[in-house]
Amino acid sequence: MGNLRLLLNKPMKIFWVLGVVFVLISRKRVDCFEGLNVTEIVYGEQKNGWSNRPLLVGLTLISSAAAKGAVCLDGSLPGYHLHRGFGSGANSWLVQLEGGGWCDTIRNCVYRKKTRHGSSRYMEKFIPFSGLLSNKRSENPDFYNWNRVKVRYCDGGSFSGDSQHKGAQLYFRGQRIYSAAMEELKSLGMRHANQALLSGCSAGGVASILHCDEFRALFPGHTRVKCLSDAGLFLDAVDVAGQRTMRKLFGNVVRLQAVGPHLPRSCTSRLNPIMCFFPHRLIADVKTPLFLVNAAYDSWQIQASLAPASADPHGNWYGCKLNNAHCSAPQIRFLQGFRGQMLGAIRRFGKFRKNGYFINSCFSHGQTERQDTWFAPGSPHIGNKGIAQSVGNWYFDRAETKIIDCPYPCDRTCHNLVFAHL
């Protein structure tokens, strides 16, 4: 099954890390899991012998950002990693917004500004490009030779806030960072793109939805522009104690970082801005073609919003959260209900031919950034379609791509996540 193993370190009493520190067995650093605070990567061979040594791409800081107030939580310059396209892809651009959870209180954000997700001072100087960012045709058949960019995430609000807290010396400038990054990329040639794709995973997947139409507006009408959200379909779901943990988190983020004015008017004109930070309330109104890649049993949402420790004081969900194979029949029924909510959330969105989705019945979170789940021997499939092929078919209009898996436990191609401790 290609399961990943996440190992516990000392818990920290900060919400965005959810009280856990993990070591992830993977082929690469996976930003989608920063909500679960992956802090170390152990490289290893895949079970079938396939291996990958990803391209390492250097960090560039946006020198013009300071004058625009487009700074990270600690006031440092934001940055990005760019690998230039070549051949037929020299004029095509793929921009990926990095994920990594949120900070929803002053205390959490003060902690976060001393990490790579709050300051460029702590960012890696080189990061691996694999999966959707790979430069190898055998690993990324449709986008390997495009200009591929990863915009680093250092604001804690899905690139969407614009405020500050002088007392704590915190800058919530996600919207400005997004704008400064796009201006920088346009100056590097993106303004002349004939094809462009905005993507993101987890918190970055939320950002790719929030900014999708804004991204479309950067280009002439004749440019093919689309957006991709991986593991970004966070639901306003009731947890195992009957509370709405995710609504509390998102509410705190929206208020603290003054996100409301930057959310789509199509939603805020009729709903409270907090409700409009949930992607499922936005996707049907996004005008630009949008594709969703999501696990129906999203591991992050199970850990953080469906069965967090605060909603499970007796630890009844502990074993189930560690390994889906340990879930009881009633717990599986609860999770099947969550899957049903997810499928309901995309119903109106799916009626538009321009949109697409790949919803597999896996216990995972983020599948486009990892090579083993994006495109590799044994990668997840629904029927005869894998994730990379499905995204490519949709982007290039080769086929209408709306694919939903049968319910757990029918899919034997999943790369389910198995945790050692919480």
UniProtKB/TrEMBL annotation:
GO CC terms: plant-type cell wall
Record keyword Secreted present: yes
GO terms of molecular function: pectin acetylesterase activity
UniProt-annotated location(s): Secreted, Cell wall
Domain of life: Eukaryota
Pfam family, one: PAE
Task of the protein: Hydrolyzes acetyl esters in homogalacturonan regions of pectin. In type I primary cell wall, galacturonic acid residues of pectin can be acetylated at the O-2 and O-3 positions. Decreasing the degree of acetylation of pectin gels in vitro alters their physical properties.
Family, per entry: Belongs to the pectinacetylesterase family.
Protein name: Pectin acetylesterase
Organism: Chenopodium quinoa (Quinoa)
Lineage: Eukaryota, Viridiplantae, Streptophyta, Embryophyta, Tracheophyta
Gene for this chain: LOC110738624
